[in-house]
């Protein structure tokens, strides 16, 4: 009868020990988490693209730039006109087929991301944009 109590006690002790170490590991991992912040272009970007027919095509996009350090938002705000102009230039040079396809949309997003990071690196001395997200993407 006594061995049953010892087994239960040993099991509880094992569970308690594992839970304490799990909390310690979780706390250590929590320090690694970055404090991401987002910068959104306001107002949204609207421009024409190269259309196939007589109808003029336009695209309206909402863009958020993700950075690791919230202090980098000041640099993005300061260079907003430069970044906005570069994105509008990229969007205006796209064909209708590329604007309207999912793979084309991803290629455009990637080109915008690369251009924004290259320009901000020239101005600030380091690339600060972790990701570029299209939060709205409307075309006609």
UniProtKB/TrEMBL annotation:
Residues 1-27 form the signal peptide. Transmembrane segments: none annotated. One of its GO terms (biological process) is bacterial-type flagellum-dependent swarming motility. Its main location: membrane. It comes from the Bacteria. InterPro entries: FliL. Keywords: Cell inner membrane, Cell membrane, Cell projection, Chemotaxis, Cilium, Flagellar rotation, Flagellum, Membrane, Signal, Transmembrane, Transmembrane helix. It is found in: Cell inner membrane; Cell membrane. It is a single-pass membrane protein. Controls the rotational direction of flagella during chemotaxis. This is Flagellar protein FliL. It comes from Shewanella violacea (strain JCM 10179 / CIP 106290 / LMG 19151 / DSS12).
């Amino acid at each position: 009868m006594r061995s049953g109590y010892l087994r239960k006690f040993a099991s509880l002790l094992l569970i308690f020990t594992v839970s304490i170490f799990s909390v310690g590991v979780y706390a250590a991992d929590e320090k690694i988490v970055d404090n991401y912040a987002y910068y959104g272009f306001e107002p949204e970007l609207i421009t024409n693209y190269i259309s196939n027919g007589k109808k003029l095509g336009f695209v309206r996009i909402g863009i958020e730039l993700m950075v690791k350090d919230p202090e980098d938002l000041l640099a993005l705000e300061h260079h907003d006109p430069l970044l906005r102009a570069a994105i509008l230039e990229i969007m205006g040079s796209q064909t209708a087929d590329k604007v309207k396809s999912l793979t084309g949309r991803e290629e455009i997003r990637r080109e915008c991301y690369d251009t924004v990071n290259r320009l901000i690196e020239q101005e600030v001395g380091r690339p600060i944009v972790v990701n570029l997200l299209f939060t709205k993407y409307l075309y006609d």
